[in-house]
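Exercise: predict the fold of this chain.
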Amino acid sequence: LAQPTPRLASGFFSIAMACLSSARRTSNVLAAAVGVVALALLGRVGPAQARLATDPAAPDAAEDPSRRLSGAASDQETKYVAHIMPWFDAGSSITGSHWCDPAFGGSFYESVFGLYSSKDPALIRKQLLLMKAAGIDGVWIDLQFTEWLEAIHAIIHEVNRLDMHFAIVIDNYARATIVEDVKADLRVWMEMPSYYRVFGRPVLPYFEHKDRQGTTVLPDWHTTDGHQPYVIGTYMVHPDGLPVGYDSLFFWNSPDLKWLETYYNSLDFTVKVGAIYRGWHEAYTDRHHTPPYMGYMGRTLEMAQEFKPYFAQIATWNDYAEGTMVEPSFLRDVSRGGCGDPKEAYWASSSKACSSLFELKLFTDGGSIGACLPGVASRGGIDGPCSGSGSATCGNVTDCTKPLDSVEGPAPPECPAGNRTAYGDLAAIAWAVRGTPLVNATATFEAILDGWEPEEPAVPMSAAAGLPPLVGLARLVAFVAAAASAAGAAWR
């Protein structure tokens, strides 16, 4: 099983279906057990191979050499990196803490860690262990202010302890000259073996804000070993091609998947930085960027696997104000109020539709993408992309992919029935990147939060191997029961 193939996946699928069908007809417990085990093994081979097992006509992108990146990445696997924000402070009334500041701190979501500090080494370690367990190779750390340097140093320390990798993202939202302000730190970090390099040059991504800062200030210096930083700009700022002074561009976050595909197919640069994201559901009160859209995790993961960029940036790990976080989290019950209550958010209007609030046309891909409401086709993001609120008021937008006010439990009452988990987005990444079944990934994530540190490989690939004592067995039993129940329901 070290190198699973579509043929092997098809075999597991056939065995599972035959055994479960026999079990239904004859009530044969052994046949049911064999069928469930076959389904578990099918979970091992990963989503692309599993899709081929059930749809032989599906294209095998992995076999298409034209999808491989030329140059540095032609013989390498995609590096999955998480864009992490180091701006959180645990205080409930600290200006700029990004938890409770009225300008930045509103959110429709809450972390399983609570209101944490980005400087806390124990917290950072757990965050990185979660990433590593999901198959994430390292972090791209956002840097806007020199005041963030203490937290960034703490993150880098833990990255090195866990044998992960990192890069610094120059975010010029607040300071046009931030790259010069932190030059000394950058030169030290770029000499570390854990710093990401391309063609021997340290990468320097830029999150650019042209409307605020004008022309981006690029580095005019070299590292101590004589290399010039490999500058990766923001594609949405330069959609028409690679500007002078840049080496590549990264895609960020958009409801327009055709635009993401255009990026992947661009011939303007070779080192691609793809994007993986769940959507967007911002809760700002004093500004607004774009209406809510959700349900994009599955498709953007599939596209990253299809096009195989050098980097695939998960956007983001923990931007709660914009609702893009894949860090384990759940929906806040806004009725309880308190710090971070999003009821005053621009997009929480109870009188206007999202399209009425938005000065530009709401993106629906020509009407093919429905509203983010429980009663429409996407079912609040459960069954794929959704955007805006249709003719309903924007405050009715509902994220049905997460539990309400708990780590595990039902979504908001207007959503389809069934329990959700705060670990769903991260588990989807673990499934896509490492082929780890949901139940295994969730058990590992829960154990990490409880203080357990997994041995390598970080996420177990077999049904229960590598999980904490008893947790593996308990989760496997739960998985078998759930799979048997689901299979039975399918034939009833």
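Check your answer against the key: The CA atoms of residues 100 and 340 lie 5 Å apart.
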